[in-house]
Amino acid sequence: MGPIVWFLVLKTIGANALLPFWLERVMVVVWPSSFWLMATDGIEGTPTAYMFIVLSVGANVVLYVLLGSAVWWVKHFFSPSKR
After folding, report:
1. Other CB atoms closer than 10 Å to residue 59's CB: what's the count?
2. Do 5 and 26 form a contact (C-beta atoms < 8 A)?
3. Rounded distance, CA 37 to CA 41, Å?
4. Are 36 and 56 a contacting pair, CB within 8 Å?
5. Neighbour count for residue 25 (Cβ, 10 Å)
6. Exposure letters 3-24 (e unless 16+ CB within 10 A, then b)
7. pLDDT for 7-22, tens place per residue?
8. Which side of the chain, N or C, has fewer Cβ within a 10 Å radius?
9. Using an 8 Å Cβ cutoff, are 29 and 82 in contact?
């Protein structure tokens, strides 16, 4: 969800606009693998750029799945038994 919202924000304000520092920090927190988008600088619209975008989104999905699994495991481990 984070990458989709981020691309909508960039489409709204313009892809080449300079973003405020706090907005870039929000992006890094919501989409930790967004730094891979630096690899697309200058090659926008090419298949290689789309590959980096897909890899970045995929890495974010894997990261959030691992984080969610860890939180679920800790909650499951420390919650009382339902028996």
Report:
1. 15
2. no
3. 7
4. yes
5. 11
6. beebeeeeeeeeeeeeeeeeee
7. 777 778 776 667 777 7
8. C
9. no
68: tokens are 């969610």
| Total-model pTM | 0.62
Q: Residue-wise over 62-72: b if at least 16 C-beta within 10 A, else e?
A: eeeeeeeeeee
Domain borders along the chain are 2-78
Furthest CA-CA distance within the chain: 60
Closest CA to 43 of 34, 32, 52, 55: 52
For the record, the structure tokens of 83 come out as 């028996």
Residue that the structure tokens 């890495």 belong to:
59
Rounded to 10 degrees, the C-alpha dihedral 64/66/71/75 comes to: 140
